[in-house]
Amino acid sequence: MMNIGLLGFGVVGRGVYEQIEKRSDLHVSRVLVRRDIPEISAIATRDFEDIITDSSIHTVVEVLGGLHPAYEYISAALRAGKHVVTANKAVVSAYYQELTSLAQKNGVALRCTAAVGGGIPWLVNLERCCRLDTVDEVCGIMNGTSNYIMDAMHKSPVNFDEILRKAQELGYAEADPSADIDGDDIRRKLVISANIAFSTLLREEDVPMFGIRTVTDRDIAAFQKRGCVCKLIATARRTPDGVAAWLEPTLVSANSLEAAVPANYNLISFQSQYLGRQSYFGQGAGRFPTASNVTQDCLDIMGGKTAFYAPAGEALTLHNDTVRHAYYVRTNCADPWLAAHTREQMVPGVLTDEVSVEEMHAWAKAQLQRDSSCFIAALG
Ligand code: HSE
User: Fold this and answer.
1) Which residue is catalytic, options 22, 89, 155, 189?
2) Is the pTM of this model over 0.90?
3) Structure confidence at residue 99 as a pLDDT band (50, 70, 90)
4) Measuring CA to CA, which residue among 185, 263, 178 is closest to residue 214?
5) Model confidence pLDDT, tens digit, residues 150-175
6) Which residues have C-beta within 8 Å of that of residue 15, sequence separation ≥ 6?
7) For the segment 241-268, what is each residue's pLDDT rounded down to a tens digit?
8) What is the CA(183)–ligand 1 centre distance, in A?
9) Does the beta carbon of 185 sit less than 6 angstroms from any atom of ligand 1?
10) Which residues make Cβ contacts (< 8 Å) with residue 162, sequence separation at least 6?
11) For residue 38, with 0-12 CB atoms within 10 Å meaning exposed, 13-18 middle and 19 or more buried, which class applies?
12) What is the rounded distance in angstroms from the CA atom of residue 153 to the CA atom of residue 149?
């Protein structure tokens, strides 16, 4: 029997509690809450000390979200020799090196399968692949909320704020949904996946991103006219001298696997030397899909998985200058760099010749200061 201290009773926490209560091998002994919740009053506490000092609790499940106090609680639990399961990509990505070493030093598990891909068993399969094979690329659709919005926009013209509100009501969106729209949430998932896949230590702030905040119905209509679908795609790839990593709206063929991903679903793939491309599809957000991976992590720990997914990594240099492709660009502010790189018109935007990811993201970041409605999408 595994006694669990559950930190948080929000969308995911409640789902975890409900799943665990149906089992005889897992038991939630205490729940850290921020407000009174009558149905769990007998085990609820507002004081983390009640959990960390309870020697009968061997596993702490953190589903509070946000960096603080989640980081402090997770570190304290690992130091106290408790296994930790978390769905918190913000903490794992930001404190990757520190938390993975802390888990290793204390001989306990740090598992975060729900942090990348919600209900998809992506990280456990990536771990399994890496123990035998060499992964050359991880990529895909890693955010349910933004996919939900893009999918709706391809079906009929929609009001962006309205559809975002719907995703929030369905429990898909982050507390601050700008993380879903602008890419921060995806970047965290990409960093965790790449660090495991390549045994490295990418830092979030080094990975360029462009989100979907500025996409319009006219852009989508132009893409559809060309037989394309626009998806927000994250990629990390081995390069001869290091790694490349970025995320951006990407035009994929209407026949591709990515184009078919509906609603809050994610599609995450790796490319490895023995297996070639392998893809994982499922619900990337939502109460029970996400809770399932949290509960599965607890079961894996009981089954003997008492470490992180990959051995300690070392920093690799980011080489986004080595990856080049063409881009769709729409801006209402003329620019000499864009004029020099324009290959053809694609109203309401233009198509560029092949430019490096590094160069395009640097240009787009600067252009957004001049024209906050600017939008770019890579030609996949
Ligand atoms: N807000 C996230 C998403 C939740 O929409 O994918 C799951 O990480």
Assistant:
1) 189
2) yes
3) very high
4) 178
5) 999 999 988 888 899 998 998 888 88
6) 287, 288, 290, 291, 292
7) 999 999 999 999 999 999 999 999 999 9
8) 11
9) yes
10) none
11) exposed
12) 6
